[in-house]
Amino acid sequence: MKSHAIVYIVGLSFLILSACSKRCDPLPDDENPSGKNSLLDSIQWKELKQTTSFHYRSDSLQDKIIYGVHTVKDTVVFTYNGKRISTISSFRQQRIAEYQYNIGGRVASIIIHTQSGTGPKINFKFTYDAAGKPAVLDYFFSRGAVILEQLLFTYEYDAAGLLAKVYAKTPGGHEVSYLIEGYAPKCDFNPWAFIEPINVTENIPIYNLPMLQTLNRLPTKITRIDGGSDEIQRHAISIDKERVARVISDFEYPFIPPTTHRLETNFFYRQ
């Protein structure tokens, strides 16, 4: 969930945002990831006094998302090749995320860069297991051929096929673990109320399109273990008519000194 705070993973500054929507049942990769039922119209962030609005094409594919934080607004626009996402671009940040696919039609990589094509790039490369679920996510931050930062995420699933653990490791041996310790009941949700399309968040190994397309339930507790910089996220998810209606998120930081903060988000749908 969006925390609107600046956090760091291995020295890289990550802006925490989120916006995503998805059906409860996993979708084939060439189907509409915005969902076919109960299109999400907007999300209101109570504490932040922010509204995120969702706009769609005539075929219900996500067309754009408009973020509003006080007087600062950004419009994120989606383009497609058929029904598959081709690019996602930010008007305000002047950045583009390019989606590339493997021979099976699944997302193979996401590359985020400036619209001019200059400067460093953020790269995500996905590999999948025999069941079609993400097995490894290779994240690296590069400038030309030089890799500046890198994390390798490995996924583990429980007997029900739900994501249970994520292990992150740098080439230098630094390790971070994510434990998914609870899930909400099945519901109808859009993956673009929980993904930041053109930035990197600390929860990117969980809240990304390939992963959310395999899940039919949303996490209610995530514990990130990072050797003294731990975080516990608790998400109380209210469901009405099989749709996400409200999420109250508590973020706990138990070390030096212990702190907490809360965010409430309310979801509104088109009739």
Query: What coarse outline follows from CA principal-axis ratios?
Result: globular
Record the strand order, biggest sheet. 4-5-6-7-8-9-10-11-12-13-14-15-17-18-19-20
DSSP strand tally = 20
CATH-scheme architecture: Beta Barrel
**What string gives the helices and strands in order?**
EEEEEEEEEEEEEEEEHEEEE
Q: What is the level 1 CATH name?
A: Mainly Beta
Largest sheet: 16 strands, antiparallel, barrel
Proportion of beta-strand residues? over 45%
- Average of the residue pLDDT scores: 84
Tally of separate domains: 1
Q: Could you tell me how far the N terminus lies from the C terminus, measured between alpha carbons in angstroms?
A: 25 Å
Radius of gyration: 17 Å
Helix share of residues? under 10%
Instruction: Tell me the structural class.
Output: mainly beta
List segments where confidence is low: pLDDT < 50 over at least 5 consecutive residues. 1-31
How many helical elements?
1
CATH domain fold name: Porin
